[in-house]
């Protein structure tokens, strides 16, 4: 369908919009410590109400499932062993998991308690309906930006109503409230108070965010910290490198941070790639040993952790593939009933393991545009599309196969109206914009810890359909929000 055109808007409106985003922290830090606004759409996307309500129902069920899978350590070790051998980073994670939990013959229970802050990303495919793109169980951030994007579109509706309504696909569309920042903070604060109370804490509950060195996405993180401070928490930020010399063990196996005291919640916004554990000045014979051991040290203490090592394994692409391929009835072992299991299955897109028979099938029989090749990497830049898949498969050796998977490629609805995207204070008319929706959830020790039965808001990222990478950081993605129609 050809999209309806809308005119470009005044420079005054663009300046107002950009200043609003900067003023409300919707920005990236530049290397010179200035701020640059995040790219954004001028008005929200539209989704059918029944699709949205289906995702609202299924997202907490997925988190409930992943929460149980992540604590089934026998299952993790027996099913992910081959993938770990094929991927050096996950091999390190698996070795940490073995040290923390022991093997099947010598199972141990580390002192940490699991806090699963998860974002499940979906696309609403034109033919197959809404399907999962991926599970994000570590560094699953941007809930603050998600809520701010919804608030920004509310600002545009009030201050620039003509521009806003001209950009909407349907004037009957209803904006969807977004509580991402508030509910993630609520879940963390609830967890921190419980840990603090259970261990007879003598001071404010304390929250530690593990961050990357010199990263640019600090404002999204600080928005969460400010919200936690409003809820009575003390917040601190450290890199793994800093923590390697600042952590110790206190009474009752408490995790102690030098100069701060006991920690109640550890939230990892780093740790999903090797570089987060790399400290060249340590001159280690085994790369990243010291800083990865710091992560293990954290889990050996009475502290709530997101993401635990096992949560990261349970939200890997390989686990997504395994859960996709197994019958719904098998989910019952992790506490779901059959109806809930079938709901989860309804949003899982087809996936296939990489082996010689799959490669032969793909090269001779498959419609190559219907598939995407993924490795275990988080964030953008880890997917191969179309004809490039055969080229990549020919370069893999059999020992690498288990680190990769084929997944059904999703083709979401394009907007029926061209949309203005704003990047670096410049507007562009995009006539093929598509969106993905990430639903946030929060569970502590397997139980929901939000005011909405585990649901905790959403993040919309949109991109031109012609672009493969839709990340706000690493691709052509823009922040967006949601309206629904009947």
How would you describe this protein?
- Belongs to the eukaryotic GSH synthase family.
- This is glutathione synthase.
- It is a single chain.
- The protein has helices spanning 11-23, 49-70, 73-86, 88-101, 143-159, 161-167, 180-198, 218-230, 240-243, 289-299, 309-314, 317-325, 338-345, 356-364, 388-395; strands at residues 27-29, 35-37, 40-41, 45-48, 113-125, 129-136, 174-175, 206-210, 234-238, 247-249, 255-257, 261-263, 265-268, 304-306, 351-353, 371-374, 383-385, 405-408, 419-423, 426-430, 433-444, 447-448, 455-464, 478-480, 482-485.
- With 486 residues, it is an alpha+beta fold.
- The chain has one domain (11-349, 410-485).
- Strand 21 and strand 22 (447-448) form a beta hairpin.
- The protein starts with 10 loop residues before the first helix and ends with a strand.
């Amino acid at each position: 369908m050809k999209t309806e055109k809308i005119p470009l808007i005044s420079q005054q409106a663009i300046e107002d919009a950009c200043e609003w985003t900067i003023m409300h922290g919707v920005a990236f830090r530049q290397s010179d410590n200035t701020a640059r606004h995040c790219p954004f759409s001028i008005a929200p996307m539209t989704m059918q109400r029944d699709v949205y309500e289906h995702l609202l129902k299924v997202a907490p069920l997925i988190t409930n499932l992943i929460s149980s899978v992540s604590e089934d350590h026998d299952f993790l070790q027996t099913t992910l062993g081959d993938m770990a051998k094929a991927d050096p980073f996950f091999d390190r994670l698996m070795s940490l998991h073995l040290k923390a939990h022991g093997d099947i013959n010598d199972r141990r229970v580390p002192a940490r308690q699991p806090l699963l802050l998860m974002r499940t990303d979906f696309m609403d495919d034109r033919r197959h309906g809404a399907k999962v793109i991926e599970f994000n169980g570590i560094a699953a951030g941007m809930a603050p930006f998600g809520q701010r994007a919804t608030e920004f579109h509310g600002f545009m509706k009030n201050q620039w109503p003509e521009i806003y309504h001209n950009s909407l696909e349907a004037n009957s569309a209803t904006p969807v409230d977004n509580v991402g920042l508030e509910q993630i903070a609520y879940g963390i604060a609830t967890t921190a108070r419980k840990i603090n109370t259970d261990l007879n804490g003598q001071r404010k509950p304390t929250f530690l965010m593990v961050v990357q060195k010199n990263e640019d996405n600090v404002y999204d993180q600080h928005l969460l910290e400010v919200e936690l401070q409003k809820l009575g928490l003390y917040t601190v930020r450290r890199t793994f490198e800093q923590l390697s010399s600042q952590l110790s063990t206190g009474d009752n196996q408490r995790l102690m941070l030098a100069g701060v005291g006991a920690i109640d919640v550890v939230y990892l916004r780093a740790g999903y790639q090797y570089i987060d554990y790399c400290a060249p000045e340590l001159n280690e014979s085994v790369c990243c040993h010291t800083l990865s051991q710091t992560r293990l040290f954290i889990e050996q203490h009475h502290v709530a952790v997101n993401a635990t090592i096992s949560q990261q394994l349970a939200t890997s692409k390989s686990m997504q593939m395994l859960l996709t391929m197994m019958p719904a009835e098998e989910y019952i072992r992790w506490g779901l009933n059959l109806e809930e299991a079938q709901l989860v299955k309804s949003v899982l897109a087809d996936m296939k393991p990489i082996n010689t028979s799959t490669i032969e099938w793909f090269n001779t029989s498959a419609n190559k545009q219907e598939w995407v090749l993924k490795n275990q990497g988080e964030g953008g830049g880890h997917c191969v599309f179309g004809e490039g898949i055969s080229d990549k498969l020919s370069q893999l050796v059999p020992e690498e196969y288990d680190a990769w998977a084929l997944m059904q490629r999703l083709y979401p609805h394009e907007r029926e109206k061209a949309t203005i995207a704003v990047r670096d204070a410049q507007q562009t008319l995009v006539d093929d914009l598509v969106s993905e929706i990430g639903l946030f959830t929060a569970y502590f020790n397997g139980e929901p810890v939000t005011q909405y039965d585990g649901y905790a808001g959403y993040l919309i990222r949109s991109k031109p359909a012609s672009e493969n990478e839709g990340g706000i950081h690493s691709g052509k993605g823009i922040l967006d929000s949601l309206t629904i129609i009947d």
